[in-house]
């Protein structure tokens, strides 16, 4: 395996994706297949994935690293209220702006709910979901014994 410090960082295109209260900073690494869309934890930013990105890209996989509104190089609007719904909106805006057909959202820690909520809301655009040391939440996930299933993608059960 190549160590990240030994690999040249891949070429990417920077995007500024408009949201209702500011712009998201997005790095798009071209390749093939459903895009891995990397969702950071808090209070970090998309650069937490800089060691992983060269490996995904060298394997021929398109990779998109998002900075949620309020973090990293994304805008930080005064008085903004950050929420799981806002994060889902950030992800949806990027998917539309970059014309991504199918994605694999990768949610680390507090980025997990955006990954799961996207899969639940858009199963036809979700190839898989990856959660890394993450919590999972759905907008209405409040019952004591219930489950949400997106066939072939994710099963979430609460106890």
Shape, principal axes of CA atoms? globular
Helix content: 10-25%
Beta strands, count: 8
Q: Could you tell me the strand content as a percent range?
A: 25-35%
Helices, by number, come to 3
Mean pLDDT across all amino acids: 80
Main sheet?
A: 6 strands, mixed
- Cα(first) to Cα(last) distance is 40 Å
Structural class: alpha/beta
Which strands sit side by side, in order, in the main sheet?
1-2-4-3-5-6
Would you list the SSEs in sequence order as H and E? EEEHEHEHEEE
Low-confidence stretches: 138-159
| Rg, alpha carbons | 15 Å
Plain-language structure description:
- This protein is an alpha/beta fold.
- Helix content is 19%, strand content 31%.
- It has a 6-stranded mixed β-sheet.
- The N and C termini lie far apart (40 Å).
State the gist of this model.
This protein has 159 residues and is an alpha/beta fold. Helix content is 19%, strand content 31%.
Question: Mind sketching the topology for me?
Answer:
Blueprint: E1 13-19, E2 22-29, E3 32-39, H1 53-58, E4 61-67, H2 84-97, E5 103-108, H3 112-121, E6 130-132, E7 146-150, E8 154-158
Parallel strand pairs: 3-4, 3-5, 5-6
Antiparallel strand pairs: 1-2, 2-4, 7-8
Helix pairs in contact: 2-3
Give the key terms.
8 strands, alpha/beta
């Amino acid at each position: 395996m190549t160590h990240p410090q030994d690999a040249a960082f891949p070429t990417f295109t920077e995007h500024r994706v408009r949201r209702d209260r500011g712009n998201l900073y997005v790095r798009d690494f071209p390749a093939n297949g459903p895009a891995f869309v990397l969702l950071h934890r808090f209070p970090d930013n998309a650069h937490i994935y800089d060691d992983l990105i060269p490996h995904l890209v060298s394997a021929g996989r398109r990779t998109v690293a998002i900075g949620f509104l309020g973090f990293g190089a994304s805008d930080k609007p005064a008085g903004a209220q950050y929420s799981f719904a806002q994060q889902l909106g950030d992800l949806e805006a990027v998917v539309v702006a970059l014309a991504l057909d199918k994605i694999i959202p990768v949610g680390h820690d507090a980025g997990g709910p955006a990954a799961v909520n996207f899969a639940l809301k858009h199963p036809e655009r979700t190839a898989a979901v990856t959660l890394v040391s993450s919590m999972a939440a759905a907008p209405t996930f409040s019952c004591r014994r219930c489950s949400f299933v997106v066939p072939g993608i994710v099963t979430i059960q609460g106890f």
